Amino acid sequence: MPRRIHPERKVKVELDGGDDIELELREILAPPGEKISLSDYDPGYSAGYKDKQGARKKLAANIRELASLQDRLYARGTWSVLVIFQALDAAGKDGAIKHVMSGVNPQGCHVVSFKQPTSEELEHDYLRRASRSLPANGHIGIFNRSYYEEVLVVRVHPELLDKQKLPASKLKGIWKRRFREINAFERYLTDNGIVVLKFFLNISKEEQRQRFLARIDRPEKNWKFSDADIEERGHWDAYMKAYEETFRRTSTQWAPWFIVPADKKWFTRLIISEAIVHTLRNLHLTYPEVSEERRRKILGMKKLLEEVDG
Q: Is 258 helix (H, G, I), strand (E, B) or coil?
């Protein structure tokens, strides 16, 4: 695993046996502006964890802390957080969202799945449906896939551009332009108090094959298997190139990409929880304070309640 930027992004984790291990979030960051190769990022990486037990214990602790941090985020109502998940099929996006966010208050969290655009959505610009789904102040928004499909799936399948009815003169240089537009959009979000976290779940081709086979072998999982999964698998190399270019162009200081090892689901969930908790901690969230006048009024109401109840 590469060890490159942000040395301050380091978290110490205590294992069951009393040993300590450091999870360095810089190890999964795509360095802003740098050309990367996904072959440098091991999908099976699990830091110093040898089994699930210690990771699950730490994940449980992170889920509890995340619930507390979210409560303060919601109460303060100034910051909001947008968490973006991108991955190839069977990488575990749904499971990661389900487990990592299991302790948060649904009232302050919203998940949006970006599937194939509808005919109505195709009548508008490609960022419109994302901008309509942004989290409100104090909320956590989760995008299961996102506007990044426009420089990934659409790049691998450029024929999809025909459905977007773009002027022919706007097709030249479209990918560089969209990278620039996405960076500007995310800068706008962060300038307005929306923290952007982007996770790519990096699954190996062999692990994906095994998970597809498991979906076929288990009848209760058959509904998750699609013919399109196999068709898209045939474009594996093209997707790797598209992702690498996307990371180089859109991993920024204000909205970095995390390339998360995804072959071990238990570690995937742990490292995602670490990154989210670490980010929320750095917001230094506190509950709103009331004025002295308001405090006196509240104490007066307390006195009235005590007298009535007495």
A: strand
Model confidence over 27-78: pLDDT tens digits?
899 999 999 999 999 999 998 887 788 899 999 999 999 999 999 999 999 9
Q: Which two tokens stand for residue 10?
A: 């380091």
- For residue 202, the surrounding DSSP H or E stretch is strand 194-202
3-state DSSP helix/strand/coil percent for the chain, to nearest 5?
55, 15, 35
Cα distances (Å, whole numbers) of residue 63 to 57, 105, 114, 134, 234: 10, 11, 25, 23, 37
CATH code of the domain occupying 10-309 = 3.40.50.300
Residue reference for tokens 């190890």: 27
- Residue 35 β-bridge partners: none
**Residue-averaged pLDDT of the chain:** 90
Please give the full DSSP string across 111-125, using - where no structure is assigned: EEE--SPPTTGGGS-
Q: Is 21 a residue whose pLDDT tops 50?
A: no
pLDDT in the model for residue 10: 38
